[in-house]
Design a protein that fits this description.
four-stranded antiparallel sheet; binds 2-oxoglutaric acid; about 270 residues; globular
């Protein structure tokens, strides 16, 4: 995938904005021709899913698919993350947030850290736009500065249109501070794991898809009693091998069929494909 000529490093204002507001948006990664490849990549991978499997319920693509692994190790993306996390960090999650045109799927307001048994809580999510995205086609929305409140009260909600099952109620949301993460295809936003975010249904005729990549500094440890499948791939620098299990680079193409899978579950599929 061709990289945009506009890629760069984060400047001091952007780094301060991340610390102060909890996000940065509109960072270029892929060129126009790279975006065509990105869209083909998304369609190819989603077409591999067995009938009845919802792509929004799958995860760990970086452990299953060499192509996804390569995307998540794109140097321009890692440079932006390094500017926030420093030179030693790992990749541990890769998934899609897809909403077809006219789809009713909603991502309720939440903090990622509510879902993740990671300590310390200091992860960065890259949200890579596969298509142009704004409020009309359900761009992700965030509450600026909400990451400064470490824990909002989440309640379980099994609404059939929800892509996640824990939500922060509307009365806890400071409406004045909502920002839509408008992005051109091939651009990324970055958000803190403590930032409140979510997205509405897609009432438009255009699809929207974000590829999310999760990175943490190498001192972060997962509680394996809660997440036994957790394993990491070094993204930059070094990692402490005694803190978390290490996942190999995929040796081929496999397809996750649910959210949580061990890396060894993909091995036989690599041999077959
Ligand atoms: O794409 C969305 O609407 C939400 C993404 C999200 O929840 C996340 O990146 O953690």
């Amino acid at each position: 995938m061709e990289i945009s000529k506009l890629v760069r490093r984060l400047n001091d204002n952007e780094i301060s904005q991340y610390e102060d507001k909890g996000y940065i948006k509109g960072l270029p990664v892929f060129s126009k021709s790279g975006v065509k490849d990105l869209q083909k990549f998304f369609l190819d991978l989603s077409n591999r899913l067995p009938a009845g499997v919802n792509i929004n319920k799958t995860n760990m693509w970086h452990k299953a698919s060499k192509k996804f692994y390569d995307l998540a190790h794109t140097p321009a993306i890692l440079d932006y993350v390094e500017d926030l996390l420093g030179s030693n960090f790992f990749l541990w999650g890769g998934q899609f947030f897809y909403k077809a045109a006219k789809s009713k799927g909603v991502v309720p307001w939440h903090q990622d850290s509510q879902y993740w048994p990671l300590n310390p809580s200091n992860s960065v999510t890259v949200w890579l736009a596969v298509y142009d995205t704004d409020k009309s086609n359900s761009a992700m929305k965030i509450v600026s500065e909400s990451h400064k409140t470490k824990r909002f009260l989440h309640k379980f909600n099994d609404d059939k249109n929800y892509d996640l099952n824990q939500e922060v109620s509307n009365d806890q949301i400071d409406k004045e501070k909502i920002v839509y993460m408008n992005l051109k295809a091939g651009e990324i936003s970055l958000h803190s794991d403590a930032l409140l975010h979510g997205s509405d249904a897609n009432y438009s005729n255009n699809p929207r898809c974000g590829i999310t990549l999760r990175y943490s500094p190498s001192n972060v440890k997962a509680d394996l009693s809660e997440w036994p499948f957790f394993s990491v791939q070094i993204a930059r620098g070094e990692t402490n091998h005694s803190l978390n299990p290490i996942a190999p680079m995929p040796r081929g193409e496999a397809t996750p069929v649910k959210g949580f899978q061990f890396h060894h579950e993909f091995e036989s599929e690599w041999r077959r494909n």
